[in-house]
Design a protein that fits this description.
Order of helices and strands: HHHHHHHHHEEHHH
Largest sheet: 2 strands, antiparallel
Distance between the termini: 40 Å
Shape: elongated
Number of strands: 2
Length: about 230
């Protein structure tokens, strides 16, 4: 499913022309620094080729038209955590900054994001920590409620393991209250807080208890339940 979504993403963007140049701020981008980006087919560009552009895109290097050309490759690489820098959240967040929901390719992007989340939930360990994947989606879409609902089905041992990791390793205390260790501010952050601490996650764990027979899964669910119910 994920591989199909990647192929569909490239297909949707196939008619976007390669820029003749990708201009940048002369104080930040050296003359000719864009040439390696344009010297090979898009899918042949490596994370090393694109990392500096990925960090500067839509700021001091290139515009929305340029970014649209590179978007499929940037998303594919970021989803696989191929960049040492920038972080996946930053790359996905540039979609929102570019206004991807207005693009003709928005359907392919939405399908890719859904497939990315499905892969994240069904692979443990995956290319990204689950908190990073969730935050990347929040930065791209501004709404993680559908993704939390999918996670809440706890439909696989991998999804349960991810929730165990999240509750064991990715909660911090701020002013005497628990908070998720994620870097997507605003609505997505509030949605995660609500899901974790206002009952939805506890109910999801309870529902999973009712149907699970796997001993490893039941042990993980017991630990998750203990953490969530022990939070003030």
């Amino acid at each position: 499913m994920y591989a199909d979504a990647v192929e569909a993403l490239y297909g949707a963007f196939a008619e976007v022309p390669r820029p003749a140049r990708v201009h940048g701020c002369p104080c930040c981008v050296a003359a000719g620094e864009d040439r390696p980006l344009l010297a090979r087919p898009l899918r042949d560009l490596t994370a090393e080729d694109l990392a500096r552009y990925a960090a500067k895109a839509l700021g001091t290097w290139g515009d929305e038209t340029d970014f649209r050309y590179f978007a499929p490759r940037l998303l594919e690489l970021a989803a696989d955590d191929a960049f040492a820098y920038p972080d996946p959240e930053a790359v996905f967040g540039k979609l929102s900054r570019a206004g991807w929901e207005r693009w003709p390719q928005r359907g392919a992007i939405a399908a890719f994001l859904d497939a990315f989340w499905t892969r994240s939930l069904t692979c443990h360990p995956g290319p990204l920590r689950i908190r990073t994947a969730l935050c990347a989606l929040g930065c791209a879409t501004g709404d993680v409620a559908p993704h939390l609902a999918a996670w809440g089905r706890l439909a696989s041992l991998a999804a349960i393991r991810h929730l165990h990791d999240f509750t064991a390793d990715d909660l911090v205390w701020k002013r005497g209250r628990p908070a998720p260790r994620i870097a997507c501010p605003g609505r997505p952050y509030d949605q995660v807080v609500s899901w974790l601490f206002e009952g939805a996650a506890v109910r999801a764990v309870g529902d999973a208890f009712e149907r699970e027979e796997d001993e490893d899964a039941l042990a993980l669910l017991t630990e998750i339940d203990s953490v969530l119910r022990g939070l003030p």
